[in-house]
Every structure is written in C-alpha cells, then in structure tokens.
Amino acid sequence: MNLAESSIAVTGGSGFLGKYVVALLQTKGCKDVFVPRSAEYDLRQPAAVERFYRDASPVIVLHLAASVGGIGANRSHPGSFFYDNLIMGVELMEQARRTKVAKFVGVGTICSYPKHAPVPFHENDLWDGYPEETNAPYGLAKKMLLVQGQAYRQEYDFNAVHLLLVNLYGPGDNFDLETSHVIPAMIRKFASAAEAGAPDVTLWGDGSATREFLFVEDAAEAIVAAAETYDDPDPVNIGSGREVQISELAGLIARLTGFSGKILWDKSKPNGQPRRQLDVSRARERLGFRAQTSLEDGLAQTHEWYLQSSLQADKTQQKG
To answer: Does the pTM of the predicted model rise above 0.85?
Structure first.
C-alpha cells in the first residue's frame, strides 16, 4: 500500500511505541495521520469507536493501543487487562469492517504463546497450550485479534494482519516501578542504587528465566513494513531473535549504570514464563525485517535517555 497517499489512524499513537510509529510514518511522507486521544475517544465504548471512525475516515488502521504492564501489573489487574484489550480489539475491528477500512494491522504480543512452547517460538506453536498464568488474561485478549482478523478475512474478505511482538524497550519507556517492564525497572533500580551507594539491589525471581527484547525503533520499522507490504492471514513474530537470561541482563545493566554492589534475588516472586525467544524467520522472509539494534547499544541509549529525563525532572522540580 502507498502509505504516503493514505489516511492512517494509529491507536495508541501517543504512547511509547506509537510515538515512534507516527514519527516514522511522517518521515515517509504520510501527512494524514490521526491519533485518537483516550480523553476524547474511549476505545472500549462502541459509540466512541464509531465517532473515531467518522472523524478519522482512515484507509489504514494500526492498532497499537493496549492496557499493559510487567508481571506485577498483570498480577494486580488481570480482569481489567483482559476486558480493556479484548473489547478495544473487537470494537475497533468490527467498525473498521463496517466502514470499509482497507487494512487493519493488529499488534499482538509474545504473551499469547503457550507457557511451555518449544524455543524458539514459531507461529505454528501458538495454539499448542495455555499461556503463562501471570499474563494469560492479557495474552489471550490480544490473541483474539488474530482470531477475529482471520474470521473476518474468511467471511468478509477483510484485510487484517497480526504481528506478535516481544518485550520492547528504548528511550521514552515507562520507568514507573509499579507498572514498568523488566528493562526500565532494572535501569531505574540500578541507577538509583549506584547514585545512593547502596550495597545491594533486589530483583524478582531467581534470574533463571530468559527473555527476548526488541528496541522500539526496530519495532516501529516492522509495523510500518507490515502496513506497506504484508497482506497474509498468518501471524508474524516480530523480535530480535536473541535470547538473554535475566541474570545476564541484570549484569549488563548493573555495569552500564555503574552499580558495583550485590544483586539479590527474591525467589518468593514469580519468574514468569521460563523461556522466551522467537523464531523470526517469517518476518525476514515476508516483511524483509531484521532488527538492527543490538541489546547492548539499545540499553546504552535507553539508560542515557533515563539519565537526561531524570535530570530534566529534577530541574523542573527545583524551579517549582
């Protein structure tokens, strides 16, 4: 599709990932990009979704909006995460079909995979078991986007595609310890401990779990590539293809932040899914996508952004 000549709506376009997607679309010459703000459009409400489509009149919809957080947030809000994500997807795609949107790109999650899926996770393994319990409600709600899209393609010839993203990180991430994912949480904990000269930092679990991470700019490239060129019903894994143990990640971030104390593990807290790594061959073959940013480079950029934003926040507070 010619994105520059299309009206494009990006739900979640003012969020962490969404800002990068919108910026990339603009660099590609897209002048008609609509970002619905949650204060004006509650995408869980059918009437608000209908109004959104009337106001935006999009040809393409990129659905990035989500209620999401780390393990702690998933444990605290399983019901709201399930409802919010499910109802947003259902209402947005139904109204997209009714208003004859040409293409709907649904952004899903690695949390949809079975807890004990063979590593690396292949798209064909998506239905071979139940997701890891702490994030199953979120993962299953997002997975319904895939089901809905394939069903609508079959019955209505509706062009819906589905991407399965790993954990993202990068400048502009959420560093709130209550709701953040593992990388920003570790950066904040280790940076604060280094500044305070703390003797140790305590992290959740035992450090044995593995994860895969994707730099946010790379994720934006993949989503835009899918909007331009991908029209198949099959879901596509979007990741870096690199598996890293949480204990190794902790060591990388400790060194990056200058923390030289002891790392303690709170084994009373859950590890989450034992292992996570995607088979990213389909993304290479069908989207021509390959992640460009190494974990080490991405962590350095994220840490630098965190330091600068913290410094700016301190200056603002002092002025106040």
So the answer is: yes
Phi-psi region of 279 (alpha: psi -120 to 50; beta: other; left: phi over 0): beta
Beta-bridge partners for 244: 211
Choosing from 53, 138, 152, 230, the catalytic residue is: 138
Q: From start to end of 186-252, where are the E strands?
A: 200-204, 210-211, 213-215, 236-238, 244-245
Tell how strand 210-211 and strand 244-245 pair up: antiparallel
Strands 8-11 and 33-34: parallel
Q: What gap in Å lies between CA 290 and CA 237, rounded to an integer?
A: 11
φ, ψ at 75 (rounded to 5°): -70, -35
Fold type of domain 3-170+212-243+274-293: Rossmann fold (3.40.50)
Structure tokens at 134: 């702490």
Which residues touch 164 (CB under 8 Å, ≥6 apart)? 108, 109, 110, 112, 113, 123, 126, 235, 236, 237, 238, 278
Which pLDDT tens digit goes with each residue over 169-207?
999 999 998 888 899 999 999 999 999 999 999 999 999
Is 138 an active-site residue?
yes
* Domain assignments of the chain as residue spans, ordered by start: 3-170+212-243+274-293
List, for residues 286-300, the tens digit of each pLDDT value. Answer: 999 999 999 999 999
Mean per-residue pLDDT, 18-36: 97
